[in-house]
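Bumping with the actual sequence this time:
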Amino acid sequence: MDQADSPAPVQRVLAASEGAAEFLALISAEELSPCLFAESLAMVSESGQPLGQFSVSVQPACYEEPGEQEQDCYLVQAASQGIVNEVPCGSSLTAYISKRLETLEQHQHEYVKFRAHPLDRKTHVVKRGGRLVVKKIIEEGEHEVQTQSFSYNCASLRGLISEAANLLVLRVLARRRAVPQDTIFLAFDTEARVCTSTYQAMGSQTQLVGMTAAEVFVVERAVCADEGIPMAWQFYFLSDGHLARRVQVGSPVTMLCLQMPVLIDEAEPRPVFEKKPLDWEEDVQLYSQFLDRKEELQASHASYARRHPELSALLADFLHQLLLRRPDDVVTFAAQFFAPFATQRPPGSAFQASHKPSPFRSHV
């Protein structure tokens, strides 16, 4: 909602059942972690003719609410595009969902391109402070535009599962192979008004996915708006949460997985290489490499000494001074002796180095 817009009226909502908020609170980030993946299904007609594509993606992300600290969340994206009865249609969903499955921001776009009267509907939901602000823009025809804004108190939305959060919740239910009984949640209807929704387990059955027969777990979700006919969807899930089939009750379009995906739970584990004790002196190959390297270094050092005869004179002078003075701290004496030869030494007299504290001990 733009800053210049007037405050949106606050709507009253129904209440979810007592177990709805508790159910959502018990879904941990660890349980959601294997639910973060992308998948794609084909839109087909009742006769099996291809009509389009449907895709869903969930991935980790970050979200920063104005005036608040950045928080880790989930980016949920879904899109469908196809031609039904020779009419292009489609929808898209982009949302940021917190790790507590709260909706931080959600954008929905739906369109049906009738030749005589195209319809375009956009819904924007965003959390601002203690309110969830909704803005709807509906375009009918070429010039008619309707805009509506309203908001909800977040405190009254305990147990709300938005359309984006629903995609994550369904994957959790599929992996659990269980659905909460007699639990009523809150949801958004097609008009972005808060209504009630329920989940129901429909049991397991065998379905052909590509050329593979797989067992699927069926979940039905129903959204009951205050006005209009309740809407229901049936989701057929593989064991790891991948969709094998999605059907909206009463719709001639089915979302179908045409190729068996690589199941997350059945993916090959990473190989583990055990650490073994290494005795290089007993290993013929390693010992041979050690001798070769030793001879190489000795030859290199001897070559360097031949190219720099001043090295022998410098070392002889150092040993002569060392044996002459016989210092108790040989390391400090060596540091002071070679200090004048340092290339990065600051300008100054070389004889002042003996009056400075030793860099190798706390006192001199």
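The tokens above came from a reply further down the thread. The CA atoms of residues 242 and 260 lie 10 Å apart.
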